[in-house]
Specification:
It is built from 14 helices and 9 strands. The protein is an alpha/beta fold.
Amino acid sequence: MSTAASIGWIGVGKMGLPMVMLARQADLDVTTYDRSAERLVLASAQGLASANSAAAAAANKDIVIASLPDDKALRGAMFGPDGIVAAMSRDAVLVETSTVSAEISAELAAVAEAAGVHYLRTPVSGNASIAHTGALTCFVSGPKAAFERVRPVLASFTRAQTYLGGAEEARYAKLAVNLMIAVSAGMMAESLALARKGGIAWQDILNVLDDSAIASPMVKYKTAPLRHRDFESTFSCRQMAKDLDLILGAGHHVEVPLPLAAHMREVYGSLIAQGEGEVDFIAPVRQAERLSGLGEPEKGNAR
């Protein structure tokens, strides 16, 4: 598909706005919509055109890209006579970038097929802190020909696009990745608490992790803010709990036991109950410290 294709973009939140800005910088013809008037004002301030409804943003477009927070928002926006799918032209491509359940995704696929719309499940991997850099990646499943048509558009706001199959494969891929991220946060929390109780200084154990066999991109991504005890959210505990609910639901659906996911869901539930729902998902570090009788490490290289 040429870059002259017209695009309706639904959802300009913390992820959607930086992604659509990259698409606009690639000279793509984009019309945006968001339920939040405040977010539309921000989009307008960046020079983005907007519509007065999701259906209006989707009408007569070659591609519609959605960035929505959850299953409920997806259902409310997509389905029904006034929804996005009903407003779309036949042979248009619907690209849905959110982390949602495979069940609602399959339901949307049936609705889209009945309307003559090509539906691509395209969850992005990464978070709002890097979305503006183009470093996000995406997993894609759905009609292969539709993927090839829109791949240049996806490449405007993601660095890699991995096609996985014709159905819900991309949904399971995103949930599998997020499961490993959640468990990695719990793993780091317990490891750091054990090291501190064993007498290792805070900065020293972070150095050890950074230069060890476990030094994955995920570990290094989080040791950097942990050096400064920075728990400002890039992806919150509440968001991780939501994703773990989806992960556990998917596991039940396909009969895969997920005890680590269940444990981490309870960890994040306890953090939310303590008022830390909007803290970064690495907050299990502080939870493990509290349970271990540890306070904040002193500045410098102290324990």
